[in-house]
Amino acid sequence: MAGYEQREALVVGAGPVGLTAALALRSYGVPVTVLEAGPDGRQRPGSRAIFTHSNTLTILDRLSPGLGAELSTHGVYWNTQRTFYEGREVYAKTYPDPPAGTYPHFTSLPQVHIEAYLYARAVAAGVEFAWDQEVADVAADAEGVTVTTAAGTAWRAPYVIGADGSRSVVRRQIGARMEGSRDEGWYIVVDVAELEQPALPNERHFHYAHPAVGGRNVLVVPFAGGYRVDLQLVDGDDPEALASPEGVRAWLDAVLPAGYADRTTWVSTYQFLQLVAHDFADPTRRVLLVGEAAHLFAPFGARGLNSGVPDAEAAALAVVLARQATNPAAARSAVETFALARRSAALFNRDAAGEALAHLRPTPERAAEVRAAAERAPQDEAASTWLEKAPYGPRGVPRAETVYRY
Ligand SMILES: Cc1cc2nc3c(=O)[nH]c(=O)nc-3n(C[C@H](O)[C@H](O)[C@H](O)COP(=O)(O)OP(=O)(O)OC[C@H]3O[C@@H](n4cnc5c(N)ncnc54)[C@H](O)[C@@H]3O)c2cc1C
């Protein structure tokens, strides 16, 4: 078609989920171009996702053999987890080291590093990148999709995967609505770089009602090169003041050993979002939404990137099946199967986040249960384990993530 850059498949957005979708398409032999609004060589801010589940590593290994192991080698793993209530330890467990030759169940490293490894793999797999392409318009018809940038460049392909993040233009353009809620409570997340002489153990700690910060909940998670500290604010707190350089320094000094408050590399605030697009594909079934373009969850619980990666694999597979389909109905069906399966996975995650939130912002009845469990723990093993697990919501991955196979 004259006036268009014609391609076999387009991915909008070179974040971790778009990179995974492109890598997946290449693993199935489909030529793909990624349209990214940012410039070549851009530096993305902050570390964002750190905790990468084993299911994510397994998928990445499937799409690019050795990638899961590569992330694992460069990330950190801890096998001790502790939970405290008002400063008293109510749970502690040290798991055995993973068997030699296997990699652990998760790895923890900054998203910027994850993206760098994904990008290198995508380049090696032959993904084409088009930078400075801010997508502004998406128009789908029975034969394909035309994507036009703010600068007026038009691209066309039979299928488009929209991975353009939380403010997705692709989502808006196809008329998908976000459904769900935003909780009023605020959280502050701070990354600190490791000291030359580490003063923190390589362990994950969750504190209910930390006595040094007025009874607020605190989570400390290691990652390659530092620690993430998540502070849950209480009603009446001013998020801006507590996230200001002086505010952060004051509470960080109270919960971490001396020296870390001088090593802050990133601060941000967030609220619990539980938003899922009403449909993960457009009405023509040629535009597919993945990652934060399709769903938004709170960072707490690590469900963002970890569900975006299976979205990306499933979307790429749907595009492959749709391209191979011998009639339009079969092609639609491949995309519809993706949209239903990944939306149901997102709803599972939304509900899981909801359960975590119910524990973190408890009703008076739940707060009394937590206090009673803390009084019985750690001697009462069931109470102890409940206190440890409940802040993150139900474990596991939605069934749809395990049944999708090529
Ligand atoms: C503090 C914090 C902690 C987190 N921790 C975790 C964690 O431990 N584990 C986890 O799984 N998840 C975590 N997450 C969530 C995770 O960071 C996101 O789920 C992930 O970044 C989503 O990736 P994405 O590719 O969908 O979107 P993004 O990373 O937002 O990438 C979107 C890309 O699209 C590009 N783009 C945007 N608009 C356009 C346009 N119009 N045209 C072209 N390109 C465009 C952007 O420049 C960007 O490159 C965390 C998030 C935060 C904020």
Automatic annotation (TrEMBL):
Protein name, per record: FAD-binding domain-containing protein
Residue ranges occupied by any FAD-binding domain in the UniProt entry: 8-324
Keyword entries, A-Z: FAD, Flavoprotein
InterPro entries reported for this sequence: FAD-bd, FAD/NAD-bd_sf, RIFMO-like
Cofactor: FAD
GO molecular function per UniProt: FAD binding; oxidoreductase activity, acting on paired donors, with incorporation or reduction of molecular oxygen, NAD(P)H as one donor, and incorporation of one atom of oxygen
PANTHER family listed in its UniProt record: BINDING MONOOXYGENASE, PUTATIVE (JCVI)-RELATED, TRK SYSTEM POTASSIUM UPTAKE PROTEIN
